[in-house]
Amino acid sequence: METQPVIVIKDLYKTFGENEVLKGINLSVNKGENLVILGRSGSGKSVTIKCLVGLVKADKGEIKIFDEEVSALNDDDLNNMRVNIGFMFQNGALYDSMSVRQNLKFALKHHTRNLAEPEIESKIMEALENVGLAESIDKMPSELSGGMKKRIALARAIIIKPKIILYDEPTSGLDTITSREISELILSVQEKYKASSIIITHDMACAKTTGNRILILNEGEITAEGSYEELEKSKDEWVHSFFI
């Protein structure tokens, strides 16, 4: 794996009212790497990735994606940067009134202009085949199980062939077997698309399967970093509590 960072965050701070959510976050993601960020609810995991793509404005700090400072980008440049970023939301965030096909088509047309209909259809089928759900193309979200919704959300994230994918709790609310399937899909996406990813999770099995490197976030600060095996042997009580 290359040690060329595609994401660099330095001294990132974010406060909401009197609540200090991020207190000087420093991290980098290398090209082709899956970086897992572990932490309890409210530790600042999701806020970190929202700052990363400009959905939340940081109070202080530096965020660079492909060597571009995010805070310096205007709206057009920010949108152009986001074309290279796939986002898998925690709840799937599918449009209930649209079929699977329409959900994926909407995402594709939002990011890529001037595609002919046969090309759109081909890209939709490719994305669905990559998550094993080609037969669900005309189903409505209400007809899908929780695991299927997650797979469709992943298909929507990869349909634009992103260079970076952000996963927000990709296995939350799923049973053990389905969670394992989603984790294995994340690995296959990494291999197929050579994408760099940040995976926000508190699912240790997902972290172990998907993470090349793991950061542990505690109350807005990174308290540990390493591989799953390295962190599992940590003598630090807080770090060890994740592995019990």
From TrEMBL:
Superkingdom of the source? Answer: Bacteria
Q: Which InterPro entries match?
A: AAA+_ATPase, ABC_transporter-like_ATP-bd, ABC_transporter-like_CS, P-loop_NTPase
- Residues annotated as domain ABC transporter: 7-244
GO terms for MF: ATP binding; ATP hydrolysis activity
Coiled-coil ranges from the UniProt annotation: none
Q: Which UniProt keywords apply?
A: ATP-binding, Nucleotide-binding, Transport
Transmembrane residues, as ranges? none
Note the Pfam families from the entry: ABC_tran
Looking up PANTHER family in the UniProt record yields: PROTEIN TRIGALACTOSYLDIACYLGLYCEROL 3, CHLOROPLASTIC (PTHR43023:SF3)
Q: Per its record, how is this protein called by name?
A: Phospholipid/cholesterol/gamma-HCH transport system ATP-binding protein
User: Which organism was this protein described from?
Assistant: Flavobacterium fluvii
